[in-house]
Amino acid sequence: MAGKKPPHLKTTVLIIGGGLSGLTLAAVLGEAGVDVTCIDRDPPVTQLTQKYDGRTTAISYASHKVLQAAGAWEKMLPDCEPILDIRVADGDSPLYLHFASETDGNGAPFGWIIENGLMRKALFENAVRLKKQVRHLAPAEITEFINEGSCVGVILKDGTKITAPLMIGADGRQSATREWLGIKVKKTDYHQTAIVCNVAHAQDHENVAVEHFRAAGPFAVLPMTRGEHGEFRSSVVWTEHGPDAGAALKLPPQAFDRRLQELFGPHLGKVKHISPPMGYPLSLMHTETYIGHRVALMAEAAHAVHPIAGQGLNLSMRDIAVLAELIVDHLKLGLDIGAPALLKSYEAWRRPDTILMARVTDILNRLFSNNLKTVGVARDLGLGMVEKLPLLKRYFARQAMGLSGVHPRIMDKGRL
């Protein structure tokens, strides 16, 4: 007797990767009535541990509209702390830039800070709510990618075959989807490591985000919600050169806190780390193209930038907004969503924005991460000029909020 034939699942959109970006896109499409399957390698219970990801995420004002369209924002909001002010300082210079939420003219927050683990939890629960439209397969191991002309897909370890007219690669920097397509990557290693941890401090952060540029790299302090005992909390992104980062991560707890206190200064009172410090090597990565036959790459499968401006996930949210709009509009017209027209439109819309942000963050990092006196003078002149020009400040404020340029309707309306 012949063995049972493995199941063949047909779906409208197949998403490879169930991280923050993949699950958000799946939910936005699911809310719009699109049948979606999202494949995730790691089990959700593993992804919710602090050891898996100890970082926080900055969600810009425009990006929160995407999460609204995903139906996940209200669930996340209690765990989000708004950013109402931004202060940018350069080394020991007395000059600094101050952006207040009123700078943009509407008083809305620049964005919000949330722990990645809590954001994942909200997205997992949201996927369950949308289970009639969104199949979240996790853990699931892909053994083979397949191209059948009118559809593409994967074969899982258990033999299940999944195909769709459009596949989205949202599987991160080490993207198997990108490797299958044979798309080349340009990469720059910054030889820097971001040391990430959460801290408790004596004084209220008053919803101020601080970016302090140092020769070794930026030191960012991002406001978080209060802890379970009412303590004031912030997230730290402390950039160091490779060897120095390794030494810092090996410091005993009390010595690590003493070093943190030196970097913080006195403005928040006594500080103490309350989560294990973790190191993340920094690099710039960009693919030569975002598209292949019936496949689009998004988020860190397509691009990764320096965290100096906190724009990594926000770039991915713009990918999501564009893809969702194009997919839903094409489906309404009865058009093939895997056809070259949609894929080329996506790349034409997203590539210039991503290249610009990659260049800006790269230049900022190189400009500020040094102690050359002549460069320092130019930096201080630049900071002073921006501080005195309201229109220029407003432009940078809108950039931080993700409101500049032509953007998809989802980022205006919070829905498709």
Give a brief outline of the structure.
The protein has 416 residues and is of the alpha/beta class.
Descriptive overview:
With 416 residues, the chain is α/β, with parallel strands linked by helices. The protein has a domain at 8-80 and 112-187 and 283-370 and 405-410: FAD/NAD(P)-binding domain (3-Layer(bba) Sandwich), CATH 3.50.50. Helices cover 36% and strands 29% of the residues. It is built from 13 helices and 22 strands. The chain has helices spanning 20-31, 44-47, 61-69, 73-76, 116-129, 176-181, 242-249, 253-264, 312-332, 340-368, 373-388, 390-401, 410-413, and strands at 8-10, 13-16, 36-39, 56-60, 81-83, 85-90, 96-100, 111-115, 134-137, 142-147, 152-156, 161-164, 166-169, 185-201, 208-214, 217-223, 232-241, 271-273, 278-287, 291-292, 295-297, 303-304. Strands 6, 7, 14, 15, 16, 17, 18, 19 and 22 form a 9-stranded mixed β-sheet that branches. The protein has a 6-stranded mixed β-sheet with strand order 9-3-2-13-21-20. A 4-stranded mixed β-sheet has the order 1-12-11-10, with no helix packed on it. Strand 20 (291-292) and strand 21 (295-297) form a beta hairpin. 45% of the residues are buried.
Give the biggest beta sheet: 9 strands, mixed
From the N-terminal CA to the C-terminal CA, the straight-line distance is: 51 Å
Please give the number of β-strands. 22
- The assigned CATH architecture of one domain is 3-Layer(bba) Sandwich
